[in-house]
Amino acid sequence: MATWTDEDIYRLDLELAKKGVAQHARAHHVAMEILGPEYVIGVGGNPQVDEVLANYARLFPGAEKTWPGMGTGLVASVDQVRKVTVPVVFGTCTVSIHEGLGFSSHAEFANWCRQDQDIALKSAFSFADIFDLTYGRDEVTHSSPDAIEMWTLALSHLEVTTNSIIGGFDLAALTQSICMTVELSLKAALAHLGVTEKELKAIGHNNVESAKLLASLKPHRDDPLIEQLVAKLPPYVGSRYKRADLTRLAMIDLALASQFIASSTLRRLTDRDFAAMIETEDGPDARSRLFD
Q1: Exposure of 123 by Cβ count < 10 A (0-12 exposed, 13-18 middle, 19+ buried)?
Q2: What is the model's pTM?
Q3: Beta partners for 82?
């Protein structure tokens, strides 16, 4: 029977961190290192695996919350923001909005939304956007490596935005990650549709021009709203050197807009369209009304 100490777990975790193993995965790696061939899980597994995992959780509380799932995004109730990690789904399942957002019941979700139907609807659209974005990105494996890389970076910027809004006070620098989420996702879709690297460089940071070109190459019902939203984005280069004079609420709206735009680039290129189901119930202009 294997034995170990807290110091063993600390040492192994540090070694794994240096190797680049993600934090959410390190508990099982530590158990494998300690138990060797005795690491067996599932039916008839070694109960010591659970002991090692419990000890790891005690020493590193919250490590499991770093699990990335399919990707992350944000939902908001006025200026309260929640981080949403989209689960990896196998087979056929029913997706519940309140469960997807991490609430134990619809009543708990409704209370978080202040019993306000518009807040609840905007949260539902936000979840649909995160779902369409993360699973849509997973479906474009046949796209060019450059396009996939840009969508992946767009998701990374969205995660930076989400974490900063939740944990930060001074949000002025977030205009950079918000603008990059938009720019990278629009250019990823354009690259997917055959726009050359030279043409993309000529567009530069002009998201209005990228959105206009995308709408002409692959029209979508989201385009009129995207046209309005990209025009409201702060200048990417200008905001590097001057703080954007935006309230927290305005910054959250920009973040949600960037998430919507990124998701729309993939809705028009894949079969992922959770948002359409919401629009079927609440009308095609429901989302536009929420951004007014």
Answers
A1: buried
A2: 0.80
A3: 75
